[in-house]
Design brief:
Radius of gyration: 25 Å
Distance between the termini: 77 Å
Largest sheet: 5 strands, mixed
Shape: globular
Number of helices: 14
Order of helices and strands: HHHHHHHHEHHEEHEHEHH
Low-confidence stretches: 353-358
Mean pLDDT: 80
Number of strands: 5
Strand content: 5-15%
Strand order of the largest sheet: 2-3-1-4-5
């Protein structure tokens, strides 16, 4: 019984926070790398190969970090043993891809199939990371089951196993904190502390349902830092990360408690504003733009202080999906970038015929 209690406590108190953090970082990097590869297909001939080299380097780093962390957990290794060949296969495919990139430098006709192979590998990575997260989630549930069994055993042998009861209490507290931290990591962006895209989509679904029920407007703001790549190139990525953190703090301070602020990409943010008309959303957007422009960062030259471009759209009555609202806001943001940056542009969904009859006053306010 003592051996069983000791083994169960060791397994139940295992901390997988670092592993979950590594996997989530790798997951977040995968769509960014896919986007970079898609952009690379439209770049000059040497650009795609540079993207491939970066893709291989980052992917191998994430794989090595995850594999090293798994090896530190002797109880976890046996549970994910069936995924070992995927580690080997992905590492081998990345090495082959790197070799193909070297050959493509001499043979430009190989660049297109090289990009296809890279996109296919990134898809395999996304599947593999999802499998790992599901396995860890299942192990977490097994931990709770182990603790429940230990609780029954300790309640029966309370007098003989006082020390085991103390260990159980500590393990339960540790497990509870660990699960809360894992849940928080899945909902927030690690760098800025803002919500991530996954949580934003969940909140947007509920907000659209409420807007449809109340026949209320729902505004969406897309915010993107201007010339952020120049800050990274000039001051380095650590300074760029600090800029993102300070901008995030400023945006959070200026947002209402009812709004949902999320970081959805490298330097791109999204603000979901329930029960907010276009007129009010534009006022908020311009205030955000002016505050970011006036916010002086100590680590940067005053001439390099970041500005922000904002795209605004509004759905009325919850008739549009989140993807549709996002598309309109993204087009408005693109227009703001095209017109010189550091500005606010709006693009509204077309009104249906029924909306034209019932919402004339609202339409007039949008026009004005």
């Amino acid at each position: 019984m003592g051996s069983y209690v000791y083994s169960a406590c060791q397994k139940a108190s295992a901390d997988y926070t670092k592993l979950v953090s590594d996997i989530i970082l790798a997951q977040q990097a995968t769509p960014q790398l896919r986007t970079a590869l898609e952009e690379a297909s439209h770049q000059p001939s040497n650009e795609p190969i540079e993207y491939i080299d970066y893709f291989v380097s980052v992917s191998k780093q994430h794989l090595n970090n995850i594999q090293t962390t798994i090896e530190r957990h002797r109880y976890l290794t046996s549970d994910v043993q069936y995924l070992t060949h995927h580690f080997i296969e992905l590492d081998s495919r990345l090495s082959i891809l790197n070799q193909q990139a070297l050959e493509a430098q001499q043979r430009p006709e190989l660049i297109e199939p090289l990009l296809r192979d890279a996109m296919e590998i990134s898809g395999s990575q996304a599947w593999f990371y999802n499998q790992l997260l599901e396995e860890i989630h299942a192990i977490s549930l097994q931990q709770r089951l182990v603790m429940q069994r230990l609780s029954i055993a300790v309640s029966v042998l309370l007098v003989l196993m006082v020390s085991a009861a103390i260990t159980l209490c500590l393990a339960v507290i540790h497990l509870h904190r660990q699960r809360n931290l894992m849940y928080q990591l899945m909902l927030t962006d690690e760098l800025t502390g803002l919500y991530n895209r996954r949580h934003l989509v969940e909140v947007a679904f509920a907000a659209l349902t409420q807007a449809q029920r109340d026949k209320a407007p729902l505004s969406l703001l897309l915010l993107d830092l201007d010339h952020f790549k120049q800050i990274n190139d000039k001051y380095g990525h650590p300074s760029g990360d600090e800029v993102l953190r300070q901008v995030s703090i400023k945006l959070r301070q200026l947002s209402r408690p009812s709004d949902t602020l999320a970081r959805i990409g490298g330097e791109e943010f999204c603000l979901l504003m329930p029960s907010t008309s276009t007129h009010d959303a534009l006022q908020v957007a311009d205030r955000l733009r002016r505050e970011i422009e006036a916010n002086k960062l100590s680590d940067l030259d005053p001439h390099d202080n970041p500005t922000i471009s904002i795209g605004v759209t509004t759905g009325n009555g919850g008739t549009l999906t989140f993807e549709q609202l996002y598309s309109f806001a993204d087009k408005a943001l693109y227009q703001a970038k095209a017109l010189g940056r550091n500005r606010v542009e709006s693009l509204l969904p077309p009104l249906t015929s029924s909306s034209e009859n019932t919402d004339k006053a609202y339409m007039q306010s949008l026009i004005s």
